[in-house]
Amino acid sequence: MGHTSLDKIKALQKNPANVRNLCILAHVDHGKTTLADSLVASNGIISSRLAGKLRYLDSREDEQIRGITMKSSAISLHYASGEKDYLINLIDSPGHVDFSSEVSTAVRLCDGAIVIVDAVEGVCPQTQAVLRQAWLENIRPVLVINKIDRLIMELKLTSQEAYTHLQKILEQVNAVTGSLFTSKVLEDRAVKEERAEEDKEEGDIKPAECPGSEQVYDWSAGLEDSDDSQLYFSPDQGNVVFASAIDGWGFSIQQFAQIHSQRMGIRAEVLLKTLWGDFYLNAKAKKIMKGAHAKGKKPLFVQLVLDNIWSLYDAVVTRRDKEKIEKMMMSLGVKVMTRDSRHSDPKVLLSAICSQWLPVSQAVLFMVCDKLPSPLDMTSERIERLMSVGARRFHSLPLQTQELKTAFMQCSSDDTAPVIVFVSKMFMVDAKALPQNKQRPLTQEEMGQRRELARQRHTERLAAIQQTESGEGNAQSGSTTPATTPGQMQGLPLKAKPEEEEEKETFVAFARVYSGVVRRGQKVFVMGPKYDPAQGLACLPPVPHLACCTMDSLYLLMGRELEELEEVPSGNVLGIGGLEECVLKSATLSTSPALPPFIPLNFEATPIVRVAIEPKHPSEMPKLVRGMRLLNQADPCAEVLIQETGEHVLVTAGEVHLQRCLDDLRERFAKIEISASKPIIPFRETVIRPPKVDMVNEDLGKQQKVAVIHQVKESDTLHLDPSGLVTLTTPNRQATVGVRAIPLPEEVTLLLEGSADLIRTLEQAGQAQREGRTLDMSTWTLDALMVLKSRLEVLLQGRKWRNAVDRIWAFGPRRYGPNILLNSVEGYQRPSVWHCLEREKGEKEGGAKAEASAIRDFDNSVVSGFQLATLSGPMCEEPLMGVCFSVERWDMNFPTQRTHLDSVTEKDSNSLDASVSESPGEGAMAGASHGRLVDCYGPFSGQLIAAVKEACRHAFQAKPQRLMAAMYTCEIMATAEVLGRVYGVLGKREGRVLQEEMKEGTEMFIIKAVLPVAESFGFADEIRKRTSGLASPQLVFSHWEVISSDPSWVPTTEEEYLHFGEKADSANQALKYMNGVRRRKGLYVEEKIVEHGEKQRTLSKNK
Question: What predicted TM-score, i.e. pTM, was given to this entire model?
Answer without folding.
Answer: 0.80
